[in-house]
Design a protein that fits this description.
The complex is a heterodimer of chains A (484) and B (446). The longest helix of chain A is centred in the N-terminal third of the chain and has 18 residues. Chain A has eleven helices and 23 strands. With 484 residues, chain A is an alpha+beta fold. In chain A, strand 21 and strand 22 form a beta hairpin. In chain A, helix 2 runs parallel beside helix 3 and helix 4 packs parallel to helix 6. Helices cover 21% and strands 39% of the residues of chain A. The N and C termini of chain A lie far apart (55 Å). Chain B is α+β, with helices and mostly antiparallel strands and 446 residues long. Chain B has two domains: 222 residues, PmbA/TldD superfamily (PmbA/TldD fold), CATH 3.30.2290; 215 residues, no CATH class. Helix content of chain B is 24%, strand content 37%. Chain B has nine helices and 18 strands. In chain B, the strands form three sheets. Chain B has a six-stranded antiparallel β-sheet with strand order 3-2-1-4-5-6. Chain B has a five-stranded mixed beta barrel with strand order 7-13-14-15-18. The longest helix of chain B has 21 residues. The radius of gyration of chain B is 24 Å and the shape is globular. The chains are: A alpha+beta (484), B alpha+beta (446). Strand 2 of chain A pairs parallel with strand 3 of chain B. Chain A: Belongs to the peptidase U62 family. Chain A: It comes from Halomonas saccharevitans. Chain A: This is TldD protein.
Chain lengths: 484, 446
Amino acid sequence: MTSQTHDMLADASDLLLTPGGLDLAALDAGLGHAMGQGIDYADLYFQRSWHEGWVLEDGEVKEASYNIDGGVGVRALAGEKTGFAYSNQISADALAETGRTAAGIVRTGARQRVAPGVATTSAARYAGIDPLSGLSAEDKIAMLKLADRVARAADPSVAQVSASLSGVHEVVLVRASDGTLAADIRPLVRFNVSVIAVKNGRRERGSAGGGGRFPMSRLRDDNVAERYAKEAVRQALVNLEAVDAPAGQMPVVLGPGWPGILLHEAVGHGLEGDFNRKGSSAFAGRMGERVASKGVTVVDDATLADRRGSMSVDDEGTPGQCTPLIEDGILTGYMQDKLNARLMGMAPTGNARRESFAHLPMPRMTNTYMRAGSDDPADILKSVSRGIYAVSFGGGQVDITSGKFVFSASEAYLIEDGKITAPVKGATLIGNGPEAMGRVSMIGHDMELDTGIGVCGKEGQGVPVGVGQPTLKLDELTVGGTQS
Amino acid sequence: MTQAFDAAAQQALLESRARMALDLARQLGAEACEVGASVDQGVGVSVREGEVETVELSRDQGIAVTVYVGQRKGSASSSDAGEASVRAVVEKALAIARHTGEDPASGLAEAALMATELPDLDVHHPWPLSIDEATELALRCEAAGRGVTGIKSSDGASLSSGEGVRVYANSHGFLGSQRGSRHSLSCLLIAEDENGMQRDYDYTSARDPRDLLAAEAVGESAAQHTLSRLGGRRPATGRMPVLFDPTLASGLVGHLMSAIAGGALFREASFLCDRLGDPLFPKWFSLGERPMEVGAMASSPFDNDGVQTRDNVFIRDGRLASYMLSAYSARRLGLQTTGNAGGARNLRISAPLESREALLERMGRGVLVTELMGQGVNGVTGDYSRGAAGFWVEDGKIQHPVEEFTIAGNLETMFQGLVGVGSDTDTRGSIHTGSWLIDEMMVAGG
């Protein structure tokens, strides 16, 4: 991969600063306003995004929308204190006003100087392009109509088809008092199909989708419209046959890929730097201890090419990296932004993320996954006499303090005597993070990443993420079905 | 607040931008157009362990334009409502409308339905609060919580205060605008025993700062909630009654409203398709909305189509009396709008209310649920399976905390199985309800 730092900075400067009469040199003065008395770090985060969305329903693209968002967020730090203000105008006046407001968090102490900006060198993890421009409106509509035709032709029980195509062209530029100067152009696209199937008075939904940081034209070239349409119908038909799920504790086998939200919830959030600095995570103070079975290795990896959760640089200008979190069952790393890394005496790990210029950055996950083991997935299923095999999920949540987490299956099956039998209705699985990771007893050799659909929410901020894992067996987890 | 917010000036500015967008759309060839615009300003202060942690000043604006050309539609929006931006948004919306397909149901709501009664509903109560005063309140709230014996640490107390203006206008000549405010104070605390840490919180929220609970009361209540969770065990697996705390009962009302929303119905994505008139709840239960209630959380005289809002009854004597429809979803279903573009406003329950103690007594043995986790609600089938925490109840009395379990059932069966509503009404949100006692659900624990 080549370094695109210089071009990226020039492009970002043209798109973000020039329209408001600013340039890179003017940012030192802008930052000066935020470096008030007693402030030991300040940063400016410029962002502009162009979002486009097309929706098909009833065989017709009846709705499409376009959104332009942008502005500058100014943050001033003093010890553990943070002052923050933002403006949707990018101009010298806006920098002065928001800077002084953010700096108001403390009013005494020495005034520190702004270090000269040095452009961050980082490898590009995706092409810095406008992903929306590669396809014409007619091409986009044709893709959506193809999904509709394929889904309706797949089975007579398909009653409703909706499909959507969306993309964001996002440009960011960060300038911080520690000399950081970094820019990034982040494409993000996604295609989704959702169907309702009706048969014998029953009604079920199936859905499928995916995407990443690449041009929309790749979605067409990869023929995702046809693939996701068939997959959505398949899932709806499976769910039409589903019986009530069992209730209680039992072995659970998770399929590869998207079920990796187990790791996101059970482990990931608990290893974010802010919760550990404050001691509010169930994993706090456990560095170097065993927190999972032997063989369990979990990483957070922003460097994967073109993935939804990847970042060439994070929202503080730190290059994205691959951070080992758990190695062979031992807790080895936290995910850090600059504030929490500094207060914990650690290094930032490129995990600072924010929903937009109007939100404060926090330590967040990127692509979080478990590395492959050596078990044959077929042997994993054979080892279970009665349990659940879950292959798709709707979402999850964690209480990082108690460690309790849930995730809700949207496609699952009974395992009886080592064989997959009837599909079961969606059920929530609940466990305790550290305990559940200790119950991982078999790890498949079939590591997969998800298709690119994840959104992670934390303190009201949503950011795109990826997950992944091989087929996994947990010896015991509570399954929230309705049958005793 | 340190940033001045002149609500009247902002309102006048947004109204002029909305008119500008309508004029421009007409000039550029749109046959009909609608515009939503808003500006919000606020301050948020959070403290932790007796120190200020963050001070955030927010100022958000936005404008969204939808144009109609024949039966085709295009939408565009921007976070900047400046004149240049308004022009760009209108042009983009029109460009999109050249590509979208014809939709016989598209278009504005009928002109005759536009709201004409536009009273001041008394929902704008700015709080002239300095950062220092906001900090002081948050610190007092947190200190009261941390002062309770057994609290280990604090994850912080936060005060937020904001006000804003929203405008909706369309090419029928309707223009409605409304100023509003919202203030809240919350506290999140941590306690620990030999089994590990627990967290819980409490909050107060109101349109008028004078209606907020005392800062100390919020902190102390957060402490009591947190301490009460220590020593949680898993309940036994089995079928039993479940009592939903008021905050969670309002979630059940929310699931019902999602299922009778026009969008879910015309997409056949609801377990309540074609059920108008059917008995869904016991006869003694009714549910309606009061959009014109003075000073309430979701009050508005007009909906997001500009249609006059009205007191709808959705459940009458247990039966599904009305769907919740916008102009568009109504056309898709061959019905009339119910003035619910943007949702229901100020939902209120009508039922015989019982004390929490009486409900526990009636339950006998079961779980009182005070927290739910995850998204395990399927609106298409009504299937319900969620993670939970709360208390074990035996002989009508709370025995001990329970955690790491699920409750599962189907919303339709749960609604039929509603056996009592509590008098412990939570009035902080747009939905007001007390606890709900459901006769039987599957509890999966140890």
